[in-house]
Amino acid sequence: MLLYDTLRQTPVAMEPIDGFVRMYVCGVTPYDTTHMGHARTYVVYDTIRRYLEWQGLPVLYVQNVTDIDDDILRKSAQLGLTWDELGRQETERFLRDMDALNVRMPNHYVKATDAIAKIIEVNSGLIERGVAYENQGNVYFNVHADPNFGSLAHSDYASMLAIANERGNFPDDPHKRDPLDFVLWQATKPGEPWWDSPWGRGRPGWHIECTAMVLEYLGPQINIHGGGSDLQFPHHACELAQAENFTGQSPHVAAWSHIGMVYYEGEKMSKSLGNLVLASKTLQHYSADAIRLGLLKYYYRDQFEYSDDDVAWGERTVERFKQAVNSGVAGGALHAEELRNEAIAALDADFQTPACLQALITLAEASINGEIDDAELAATTLRELGTVLGLRSELW
Ligand SMILES: [Zn+2]
């Protein structure tokens, strides 16, 4: 299977490293419920995992939970909950939504607060290697110490700084040497939770959390590091810099992989704008199979405007698949094997789910209408690839 690498801007082959295709996907910050943007990201990687496994490649899949950060502290204070209570509740809610969407659990699902020891180890290593510095209990990555910093952004310093500032950077932090330097550890403020460290009491920065978990559970070199396209910069660019400077090994990741944003009412679906379609709400009206197909209808790197029409289309499509499996008849000249190969080839070529679904729909319709040469192969294919797409085709 080939998957697009945002760094080299070309599709790359997924070759197992020490027996596994190693995949890390940035997880949620548990302070609000699962919207369709989240659902899309985790459905896509769940499906990529299922496809690789179906091809006989074992996958080792790790995902984090950012259970401590500014948003959690702000929201828990608003709600009158402790930060860890809010995190626990919202993580449970997220996992229920994932389960309802037939998204399987990663092999390791790790909270940031359970990775503090590794975070401290990596931060200490970065200071020793001269690419990070401490200032009054805070630790920062020095972006000028790494000539490759920001390679994943494919843009210049001024544009990077502008994007970073939109996405949570504090350019005026007086403890930093450069406005683009990013935080690896921050000193505790009154009333905040803290952990002991060589730099005093504090809590980890966001980017270092993922790097620590990748290194702890997957190793210095992995196949896929995924997330929404809004993570490409600064989050993933910072992760790349941290990991490669700490391990001295490159490339850290074969495919930096990014999922297009989901739009709603003309804007990116986001907690801050409040234009959310929640997975749990949609599940009250449509099946998980329908939602998965509605999301997989679009090529994963493209953005799209969410509409219930896509999910309704998913529902009708699943019904046709079922009908073809249960009452398809042979009798025509269309080759089931060719359509099966087409569907598989589409997934091999950078996970082109729209082309895959198109081949499966042609197969199902031909089988229902008695225009296929082998109705049994059509049924097997729809069931098998249905399972790969995460449909509950075992129930058909
Ligand atoms: Zn991450």
Automatic annotation (TrEMBL):
<feature type="domain" description="tRNA synthetases class I catalytic">
    <location>
        <begin position="20"/>
        <end position="311"/>
    </location>
</feature>
<feature type="binding site">
    <location>
        <position position="235"/>
    </location>
    <ligand>
        <name>Zn(2+)</name>
    </ligand>
</feature>
<feature type="binding site">
    <location>
        <position position="26"/>
    </location>
    <ligand>
        <name>Zn(2+)</name>
    </ligand>
</feature>
<feature type="short sequence motif" description="'KMSKS' region">
    <location>
        <begin position="268"/>
        <end position="272"/>
    </location>
</feature>
<keyword id="KW-0436">Ligase</keyword>
<dbReference type="GO" id="GO:0016874">
    <property type="term" value="F:ligase activity"/>
</dbReference>
<keyword id="KW-0479">Metal-binding</keyword>
<dbReference type="InterPro" id="IPR014729">
    <property type="entry name" value="Rossmann-like_a/b/a_fold"/>
</dbReference>
<dbReference type="InterPro" id="IPR024909">
    <property type="entry name" value="Cys-tRNA/MSH_ligase"/>
</dbReference>
<feature type="binding site">
    <location>
        <position position="239"/>
    </location>
    <ligand>
        <name>Zn(2+)</name>
    </ligand>
</feature>
<protein>
    <recommendedName>
        <fullName>Cysteine--tRNA ligase</fullName>
        <ecNumber>6.1.1.16</ecNumber>
    </recommendedName>
</protein>
<dbReference type="InterPro" id="IPR032678">
    <property type="entry name" value="tRNA-synt_1_cat_dom"/>
</dbReference>
<keyword id="KW-0862">Zinc</keyword>
<comment type="similarity">
    <text>Belongs to the class-I aminoacyl-tRNA synthetase family.</text>
</comment>
<dbReference type="Pfam" id="PF01406">
    <property type="entry name" value="tRNA-synt_1e"/>
</dbReference>
<feature type="binding site">
    <location>
        <position position="210"/>
    </location>
    <ligand>
        <name>Zn(2+)</name>
    </ligand>
</feature>
<keyword id="KW-0030">Aminoacyl-tRNA synthetase</keyword>
<comment type="subunit">
    <text>Monomer.</text>
</comment>
<keyword id="KW-0547">Nucleotide-binding</keyword>
<keyword id="KW-0648">Protein biosynthesis</keyword>
<keyword id="KW-0963">Cytoplasm</keyword>
<keyword id="KW-0067">ATP-binding</keyword>
<dbReference type="InterPro" id="IPR015803">
    <property type="entry name" value="Cys-tRNA-ligase"/>
</dbReference>
<feature type="binding site">
    <location>
        <position position="271"/>
    </location>
    <ligand>
        <name>ATP</name>
    </ligand>
</feature>
